[in-house]
Design a protein that fits this description.
The chain has 150 residues and is mainly alpha-helical. It is 80% helix and 0% strand. Helix 1 runs antiparallel to helix 5 and helix 2 packs antiparallel against helix 4.
Length: 150
């Protein structure tokens, strides 16, 4: 089960990244071109939110099952880069990114005009994307993933 979830989590990251990039491009395009906020925009942003939350739930399940996450000797964990990354840094960055996606989506729903909706998505989703990419890049070479594959 752990291996299957790990592969699902690794593969789903590409879906999340693709949707985030598309949502950001759509929001920036809508903002720059003063375009209306369409039902297509709403659905893209919602699917991005949902995929991010699913990815987070799978990640939390992996976090609970992982042998790389330990709280027994936190002073040792904090001294060891690999253990520190998987126990503290990765989860913190990813939870923060999903919170930003959630806040951005919520603010866009509450906004009245199209410009404010696009701006909310553009700002919050872009910050979340930067955090996610940083966390993924930090993981390369830590014994869990390679950049391009599983």
């Amino acid at each position: 089960m752990y291996t299957g979830l790990k592969h699902l989590h690794s593969g789903l990251r590409y879906v999340v990244l693709l949707l985030l990039i598309l949502a950001i491009i759509s929001a920036i395009s809508g903002l720059a071109g003063k375009k209306p906020y369409t039902e297509g925009n709403r659905k893209l942003n919602l699917f991005t939110l949902i995929s991010g939350h699913i990815q987070l739930l799978i990640g939390l399940a992996l976090y609970a099952m992982s042998s790389m996450v330990t709280f027994n000797d936190m002073s040792n964990v904090m001294k060891t880069a690999n253990l520190r990354y998987w126990t503290v840094e990765h989860i913190s960055m990813m939870v923060l990114a999903i919170i930003l996606i959630t806040v951005g989506h919520s603010k866009s729903k509450k906004a009245v005009d199209a410009s404010a909706k696009h701006k909310s998505i553009a700002v919050f989703y872009t910050i979340a994307l930067v955090i996610i990419l940083a966390a993924i890049m930090m993981a390369v070479g830590k014994g869990f993933i390679t950049f391009w594959g599983f």
